[in-house]
Design brief:
The complex is a heterodimer.
Chain A (H helix, E strand, L loop, with lengths): L2 H8 L9 H12 L4 H11 L3 H10 L11 E6 L2 H5 L2 H12 L12 E6 L11 E3 L2 E3 L7 H10 L1
Parallel strand pairs in A: 1-2
Antiparallel strand pairs in A: 1-3, 3-4
Helix pairs in contact in A: 2-3, 3-4
Chain B lengths: L18 H6 L4 H9 L2 H11 L11 H6 L10 E6 L8 H8 L1 H15 L3 E6 L4 H16 L15 E6 L9 H8 L23 E5 H13 L1 H5 L9 E8 L5 E6 L4 H8 L9 E5 L8 E2 L9 H6 L8 E6 L4 H15 L5 H18 L7 H12 L7 H26 L11
Classes of the chains: A alpha+beta, B alpha/beta.
Chain lengths: 152, 427
């Protein structure tokens, strides 16, 4: 994280603490997860106690405190997706990737995650990987989808 | 076919939402008109007369909310656009952001001018990765064209807009939790009063408006309050984007007059039920609101009609379930969600959501006890109206309604110690 990018974030807010979430996002984009070191540096940079940073980093689901796969595969298991077979999709993904939801593949490529509503119920059941949405997906689509993601 | 207003540009072939396309289709004419013809006070009055109500969930009249903001010009004020769209079953704001972001920016400009704010934030849920890129790009284009920045169109009015990304917390859709999050804290809702209009972001007067609410503003300014209020009912005006999902043939977003009958929405626009099955239940306004049944199909979707039917218009997320749906399982999924999302601040919610989930899960798995149905109602009773924010009520109300309309199904699960639908579909 460059000083310039930090300054750019800080310039948006009248109070430094508001920069915490954006800077946590930046740290995570760089290292893949929030390292202890990064959290410590952020606390110093924003004049916050380590606890004030830690409580925020642990409150929000998108922040990772441990290393994970290069890419996260999010599968919605909320109501609209479940009505149309999300659980079958998750089972097929687990089989295809060889891990349970919440785990990372041994090759370090993917972390499979059950997530709550992604605001894409119009294409339920839905999978989100990075900025991309895949849906409606059926268990039969999973093999080809995983293949495609591996190649990207 | 009724006229589309907020989604009309979605129908232009190849429309990508660039500023050039937006300008070529009448974009930014409303802010030009407002800056020339309206004072902030007359703009607030216009929106009040239009009858526009918040589209995020609570349905509070937008112009009235703006009117609560102190007029003292020496006081810094903030506009915050709530783009944390997370209510299960709702997916309209994501479309509005990604497909016509300048319409939203123009709405932000108008609201900011009305309340006298010079810095606005858009709080977007962290999962909207594409949406964030598109919105940042739109801000840059608007700055480059002089619609954002200092002395906009020579009017003396200045505005900066910043994107602030959330990081995965449903509770941050609650406006005071959102403000806490924007201040760099955990998303714990604040006690109200004071309301944000008096003490919001950084304890300064703040208006929090939903994406869809703001997108209505350019149209109200250009076409007038009377035009807007001629759509819908006297108390629920304009159109609404209904997000229809579940067991329908054509799930998707449908912008329709706000008082469209539920039957027309589901059976005409969303194509009716899949596989010719019978409709069993409809959640009409996101997973937080009480469920309705096929007995309610002639209910209109406006705020008052749905309230009279015992439910709420909520966020406009319509989840349709057919006769093959196990309502215990549906209830368990919804309860699991609120359990996961409770911020843990209030005991009734933290404990209640956990107990609801645990009890529903046991019934669903065929381990339910006779006393569990009463237990569920007792838990709900202890959760409602007793907490800082409405998440606790949002978790309890659906469960009560599932028991009210589908109590037999719950009893059958307990008596047979199994799901009569065989839909035990878990990992």
């Amino acid at each position: 994280m460059t000083e310039e990018s930090i300054q750019q974030v800080l310039s948006r807010y009248p109070h430094r603490r508001s920069a915490l979430l954006p800077l946590l996002h930046l740290c995570q984009e760089e290292a893949g997860y929030l390292t202890e070191e990064a959290l410590g540096q952020l606390a110093k940079r924003l004049d916050l106690s380590p606890t004030q940073v830690a409580e925020v980093a642990t409150f929000y689901d998108l922040f990772r405190l441990k290393p994970g796969g290069q890419r996260e595969v999010w599968v919605c298991h909320n109501l609209s997706c479940s009505l149309l077979g999300a659980e079958q999709v998750i089972r097929r993904l687990e089989k295809e990737l060889g891990v349970s939801a919440g785990e990372t593949t041994p090759d370090g490529l993917f972390t499979l995650k059950r997530v709550e509503c992604l605001a894409a119920c119009g294409i339920a059941p839905v999978i989100q990987v990075g900025a991309d949405y895949y849906g409606p997906v059926s268990p039969q689509d999973i093999g080809a989808l995983v293949e495609r993601l591996r190649k990207e | 076919m009724s006229e589309k207003i907020l989604t009309k540009r979605f129908e232009i072939a190849g429309y990508l939402g660039t500023i050039e396309e937006y300008l070529a289709t009448g974009g930014y004419q409303a802010i030009a008109k407002a800056l020339k013809e309206h004072t902030p006070a007359s703009l607030i009055d216009l929106v009040r007369r239009s009858g526009l109500r918040g589209r995020g969930g609570a349905g509070f009249p937008t112009g009235v909310k703006w009117g609560f903001v102190p007029k003292d010009p020496g006081l810094t004020k903030y506009l915050v656009c709530n783009a944390d769209e997370s209510e299960p079953g709702t997916f309209k704001d994501r479309d509005l952001i990604t497909r016509d972001s300048h319409q939203l920016l123009e709405g932000i400009l108008l609201a900011s001018y009305a309340i006298g704010c010079q810095t606005a934030y858009l709080y977007m849920r962290g999962e909207f990765i594409a949406g964030a890129v598109i919105f940042e790009q739109a801000i840059k284009q608007a700055v480059a064209h002089g619609f954002l920045g200092k002395d906009i169109l020579g009017s003396g009015f200045s505005l900066e807009v910043h994107l602030h990304r959330g990081a995965g917390a449903y509770i941050c859709g609650e406006e005071t939790a959102l403000l806490e999050s924007l201040e760099g804290k955990r998303g714990l809702p604040r006690l109200k009063p004071p309301f944000p209009a008096a003490s919001g972001l950084y304890r300064l007067p703040t208006v929090v408006n939903n994406v869809e609410t703001l997108c209505n503003l350019p149209h109200i300014v250009l076409r007038g309050a009377e035009w807007f209020s001629s759509i819908g009912t006297p108390k629920s005006t304009g159109t609404r984007i209904f997000s229809v999902s579940g067991h329908v043939r054509r799930p998707g977003n449908y912008e329709l007059p706000i008082d469209v009958p539920m039957r027309e929405l589901i059976f005409e626009h969303a194509g009716g039920m899949r596989g010719g099955r019978r409709l069993k239940a409809v959640i009409p306004g996101g997973s937080s609101v009480p469920v309705l049944t096929d007995q309610h199909l002639d209910t209109r979707m406006d705020f008052e009609s749905l309230a009279r039917a015992g439910s709420m218009a909520g966020s406009g997320g319509v989840i349709v379930m057919d006769e093959s749906t196990c309502m215990v399982r549906a209830g368990e999924i919804v309860a699991r969600f609120y359990h996961h999302e409770s911020c843990g601040q209030c005991t009734q919610c933290r404990e209640g959501t956990a107990w609801l989930h645990k009890t529903l899960r046991r019934i669903d798995e065929g381990r339910g006890r006779k006393a569990d149905l009463d237990l569920l109602l007792d838990i709900c009773d202890n959760m409602k109206g007793k907490t800082i924010c409405p998440l606790s009520d949002a978790a309890a109300m659906p469960v009560e309604s599932y028991l009210k309309y589908f109590g037999d199904e719950f009893e059958q699960h307990v008596v047979e110690q199994a799901c009569p639908f065989g839909s035990r579909d878990r990992s």
